[in-house]
Amino acid sequence: MYLSQAGQDKFILNVLNQKRDGYFLEIGSNHPVNINNTYLLESRYNWKGVMVEYEHSFLSLYQQYRPNSIHVINDATQVDYKSVFETNNFPFSLDYLQIDLEAINGSTLMALQNLHANIFDTYKFATITFEHDVYHTNFGNTRLVSRDIFKNRGYVCVFEDISCDGNAFEDWYVHPELVDMNYVNKLIENNKKNYISNPVTGLSIDYKTIEYN
Questions:
Q1: What is the pLDDT at residue 71?
Q2: For the whole model, what pTM was predicted?
Q3: Beta strand pairing call for 156-164 and 202-206
Q4: The Cα angle at residue 11 between residues 172 and 141, in degrees rounded to 5
Q5: Residue 97 and residue 173: Cα distance in Å, rounded?
Q6: In terms of C-beta density within 10 A (0-12 exposed, 13-18 middle, 19 or more buried), how is residue 73 classed?
Q7: Rounded Cα gap, residues 5 and 183, in angstroms
Q8: Which residue of 39, 131, 143, 199 has the fewest CB atoms within a 10 Å radius of its CB?
Q9: pLDDT per position as a tens digit, 9-32
Q10: Pairing between β-strand 124-131 and β-strand 167-174 as defined by DSSP bridges
Q11: Dihedral through CA 154, CA 6, CA 165, CA 192, nearest 10?
Q12: What is the pLDDT of residue 49?
């Protein structure tokens, strides 16, 4: 059922209790269907959102397979997200933010800093998946700087250093004002036992071992 590469859509739907008619901002959309974090949300749960992608060749596929969403073909670090949200009457509380860019060239951190400066004062996201790719790069100390930004903005990290095949690459967050924290706290507690030793981060959790309540 789930279509994300590492269970991101499963995390979102479980935390949000299978929510329908949600809103997302997907930064680094890549293919609109294959291992895409929001295709299931849009196609089966009637979500809509903003898909941001640098590669223009994906546009025709977006138009074909993602008709409910807004397609922004641009450098994610330079997008005026506030204008996009305002133009399309997006709510101030959104349901999911994905940042999945190239940490090795700094675009991941720059996109987050753009949101930090221009979006986070007005808009909040119930769930976030942030790809730091610390297993192969530490450009600008992306992993720790991003954690400081999210903490400063009131987000709670549910899972640190999600891993795939032993490679720790992503953190998953929630905003406590927008989710059921009783559920989230149980999720955190029940999965502490599933963290294993990791040579880069000390500990990580394989997405396949996450247990949902």
A1: 98
A2: 0.97
A3: parallel
A4: 15
A5: 10
A6: middle
A7: 24
A8: 199
A9: 999 999 999 999 999 999 999 999
A10: antiparallel
A11: 50
A12: 98
Q: Provide the strand spans (E) within 17-166.
A: 23-27, 48-53, 70-73, 93-99, 124-131, 156-164
The answer to whether the CB of 96 falls within 8 A of the CB of 38 is yes
Tokens 């730091």, residue?
132
**What domains does the chain contain, in order, with CATH numbers?**
8-209 (3.40.50.150)
| DSSP secondary structure code for residue 207 in this structure | G
Query: Helix 181-190 crosses helix 8-15 at what angle (to 10 degrees)?
Result: 130
DSSP code of 73?
E
Structural tokens at position 139: 């450009």
What is the rounded CA–CA span in Å between residue 122 and residue 185?
Answer: 26
> What is the per-residue pLDDT across 62-85, written as a single tens digit (0 to 9) for each?
999 999 999 999 999 999 999 999
The phi and psi torsions of 187 (rounded to 5 degrees) equal -60, -45
State how beta strands 70-73 and 48-53 pair.
parallel
Start-to-end C-alpha separation, the chain: 18
- DSSP character at residue 75: -
Angle, alpha carbons 107-171-111 (nearest 5°): 20
Please report the pLDDT score of residue 155 as a whole number: 98
